[in-house]
Structure prediction request, 238 residues.
Amino acid sequence: MTDTQVRISPDGGALIDGDPIDVPPGVDPARVVLQQLALDAAGSEGPIAAAIHDTRTEQRLRLQINPDGTTRPLAPGEPLTPPATIAAPDDEDSASPEHHQALYAVYEAGRAHDFTRAAAQADRLLADLTATHGECHPATLTTAGVRADLAWMSGDYRYAAELWTYIAQGWAQAAGPASRPARSGARQAAASWKDVPDTEALASGRPLLAMLTAIAPSPDTNATVLAVRRRISRLTPT
Prediction:
């Protein structure tokens, strides 16, 4: 498989395989790149490899990007390895052809930056999966991750934070709070919440803090938990 080629320019622009991507003002282009690549991985239903050249620092690296947004470094020529999988909690097919087709349509719309259409398609798919399989089924949670990426990329940071909080809680219930997808969801939730304006952050911050406290190792000293707690304290009316 040919690596996806990524170039981040000195002015903060970014190209993926030569195509420019939208970078919101004030946002690190590397973060936008990883969100887009996670969306691509979700669309292909497997990990992808990306060769990234950040000309701001002349850093070059090769990464495996998994559909859940997790990454790992790859050496030159090193093959992709399947990410850890979580067994479905029931015997129903978590990856039916209909699910594949619907998720691919979401991916295609997102890849074209038609976030309105992609979000509407993802919402319909997510509702169907929740009704069929339940909130904690891997197919439901994986699709919710795609929807959360779309929310973040379209600037709806509050909804992204709320979705990632729900996803982390779902994986914690399905696979355990120490599982990789639960920890990954928790990190994504906290990262998205940083971009939520102060006027909207308190409502989504409280469930986020409860989730992080349950999932994060050593929550009393965990830097992310402490940072979220400080912001909530600052925003709470006295």
Remarks:
- The longest strand covers residues 48-54.
- Strands lie at 4-8, 14-16, 19-20, 48-54, 59-65, 71-73.
- DSSP finds eight helices and six strands in the chain.
- The chain has a mean pLDDT of 87.
